[in-house]
């Protein structure tokens, strides 16, 4: 078995456990489990180890980010509704100093005005939004490309 080249924590925020049935015209027909399985397949091919965490609670997400320090090389996060409100999640990401990729299924910039501001973007390495479940796959690929470019 290959050694994991990188460890990535994938965090999903509130209401994302309802994917598949929640506003499929906006968020797609795939469940969170479908998305995690597809990410896992792509990550295996790229020699990336993924751990998954979903919570509806801001405090639990903050705690999980804090526990990631020293244990993960990257974080992929869809903070869902907390994207637009959570100073605490932003502070946690800044505090652990782990490069973070922010993902959204929908393009938050062409939705309601309150969704067009992300408190997380300013502490993220980059943001991927608007590609449905492929936003998550693209985040795994982004990490793979970053790892490859840091090797050369
Ligand atoms: C979301 C966009 C947020 O505005 C919303 O609250 C979500 C999902 C997305 O993935 O498109 O729950 O983060």
Q: What number of structural domains do the residues give?
A: 1
Task: Return the CATH class.
Answer: Alpha Beta
Q: Give the low-pLDDT segments.
A: none
Largest sheet: 5 strands, parallel
Classify the fold: give the CATH topology: Rossmann fold
Q: What's the total number of strands? A: 5
Residues in helices, as a percent range: 25-40%
Tell me the fraction of residues in β-strands, as a range.
Answer: 15-25%
Please explain how this structure is put together:
This protein is α/β, with parallel strands linked by helices. The chain is 38% helix and 18% strand. The chain contains five helices and five strands; from the N terminus they run βααβαβαββα. It has helices at residues 24-27, 32-45, 58-68, 87-96, 134-151, and strands spanning 6-12, 48-54, 74-78, 100-104, 126-129. A five-stranded parallel beta sheet has the order 2-1-3-4-5, sandwiched between helices. Strand 3 (74-78), helix 4 (87-96) and strand 4 (100-104) form a beta-alpha-beta unit. The two termini are 24 Å apart. The model has no long low-confidence stretch (mean pLDDT 95). Bound molecules: 1,3,4-trihydroxy-5-OXO-cyclohexanecarboxylic acid.
Write out key terms for the chains shown.
Rossmann fold; alpha/beta; 18% strand; five-stranded parallel beta sheet; globular; binds 1,3,4-trihydroxy-5-OXO-cyclohexanecarboxylic acid; 5 helices; 152 residues; single chain; 38% helix
